[in-house]
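For concreteness, we quote verbatim a single protein encoded this way:
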Amino acid sequence: MAGSPVVIDASVALKLVLPDPQREQVRALVSHLVGQGAELVAPALWAYETTSTLCKAVHFGQLTPDEGRHALNQLLGLSVRLVAPNVEQNRQAFEWTLRLKRASAYDSYYLALAEALRCDLWTADRRLFNAVDLPWVRWAGDG
């Protein structure tokens, strides 16, 4: 049986596998969440965002192809439950995007999913965290 859901965005996942000063802090956070029985959840676009970012890292020489494959396998090993948006989440993502005065809805899908599941959203995207300022949107640096 799965534990309580916790939404993690692509920025959190990528800090786990890419060179980053916050890498160990984010790893400790995710380990803590999983250790407490949390079920990691994300909108389906998480897979596209994480895979695309790893491909870019390989393309621009930040990772070797083998390092990229290893990083992808690490992300797949997180067993994040990906959720396809339903009609209501599409509407909520649209409203979040308008509220945040953004041109694209990517971040809004994470917000809409966390809102629908009534759970925390963990992000390492400081811009998103600062824009929302809600108690259930959590900064991965606080972990």
